[in-house]
Amino acid sequence: MTLQRIKTLTQFIVERQSQYPQAKGALTRLINDIATAAKIVNREINAAGLVDILGFEGADNIQGEAQKKLDVYANERFIEALKGGGECCAIASEENEKIISFQNEFSEMGKYVVAIDPLDGSSNIEANVSIGTVFSIYRRISDLGGGKLEDMLQPGINIVAAGYVIYGSSTMLVYSTGHGVNGFTLDPSVGIFCLSHPDMRFPEPPTIYSINEGKYASFPAGVKKYIKYCQVEDPVSFRPYTSRYIGSMVADFHRNLIKGGIFMYPGTTKQPKGKLRLLYECNPVAFIAEQAGGRASDGYKRILEIEPKTLHQRSPLFIGPKSMVEKVEEFLSKPAND
Q1: Cα–Cα distance measured from residue 161 to residue 17, given in angstroms and rounded to the nearest whole number
Q2: DSSP 151
Q3: What is the pLDDT of residue 1?
């Protein structure tokens, strides 16, 4: 039997860095800072049922959503890790109204800013359903000093790296620096992320669609027609597709990246812009999707080309294999009575 050499996250990013002579190691250290914070958050998630960390904190975040104790804990851990690492000069978090600009001798020299949702899907914590962290990294465009709002309000095409962590039956870190997508599974016995899913791509043929069909009545006509299209029997196109929906964006996206399918969070009559935030939810997974051979759209336009106007701007999201996303766009482009 041939023993396969285990490659750790640190080894992997150092090897990749050596392929690019212009790389100075700052991005490598920044990704390692995020991985370190993720391991700390993972520890608390696994122990959540045994300690006083479940339930609500007693306050609302900027989105008007009740903060869970784990939301606050995860937010604090990622802020500490990114500030202490010195490679990041500011972050934008779902949990904070304004950007957090780091003012110290190390971070003010940082070349990067990070947009992050520290704990996506936290409404599912008590149900023991997979939740996640999702992040994107941009080069700062302001002068040296603490990061500024302008550093955050960049379109997704300027992302230099993005990824997510999924806390489930196993904990995985999936990320890309624009050269494909790779996944690393945490070995809890030694606390190290190890390469487990190299060169991730959406498999073909895709056979899953993920959407909260409980809101069907309030969806745009084009989305309703696409759902019906997914349910029609047609062996040539491998329909009907299978409906799978978890309710945690990171978990839904991760499953569809592994199994092959589309995740949809459209606008509704009450929320025409949808619920997901462009900067720290839509953009990171859109970057990952494109690097995995897929597509991400708001139904009419490429997600990564949308110019953000505000820190917590929302956007509809259709993300998955190109063929599926393009079919949704086709239905949305037709007149409602067609």
Answers
A1: 13
A2: H
A3: 37
Task: List the structure tokens of 262.
Answer: 């589309």
Q: Is residue 76 part of a domain?
A: yes
Tens-place pLDDT, residues 146-179: 899 999 999 999 999 999 999 988 999 999 999 9
Least confident of 41-50, 67-76, 189-198, 200-209: 41-50
pTM of structure: 0.92
Q: Determine, yes or no, domain membership for 203.
A: no
The Cα–Cα gap between 131 and 94 comes to 15
What single string gives the DSSP state of each residue in 243-302?
E---S-HHHHHHHHHHHTEEEEE---SS-TT-SSBIIIIIHHHHHHHHHTTEEEESSSSB
> Could you tell me if 82 and 178 lie in one domain?
yes
Q: Which two tokens stand for residue 35?
A: 């991985």
Q: Which 3 state secondary structure label does DSSP give 116?
A: strand
Q: CA angle, corner 245, sides to 244 and 248, nearest 5?
A: 145
The secondary structure element, H or E, covering residue 11 is helix 9-18
The pair of structure tokens assigned to 214 is: 């409980």
Within 10 A of 227 (CB to CB), how many other CB atoms are there?
19
Residue 305 near residue 186, CB atoms below 8 Å: no
Domain boundary among 197, 216, 241: 197
Radius of gyration of the chain (CA): 20
Check whether 109 has a pLDDT greater than 80. no
Question: Which structural domain, as residue segments, surrounds residue 293?
Answer: 208-333
What would the 3-class secondary structure string for 29-81 be?
HHHHHHHHHHHHHHHHHHCCCCCCCCCEEEEECCCCCEEEHHHHHHHHHHHHH
CA dihedral 268, 269, 273, 277 (to 10 degrees): -50
pLDDT confidence of residue 3: 45
Cα(110)–Cα(152) distance, rounded to whole angstroms?
14
> Parallel, antiparallel, or unpaired: how do β-strands 131-139 and 159-167 relate?
antiparallel
Q: What is the pLDDT of residue 68?
A: 73
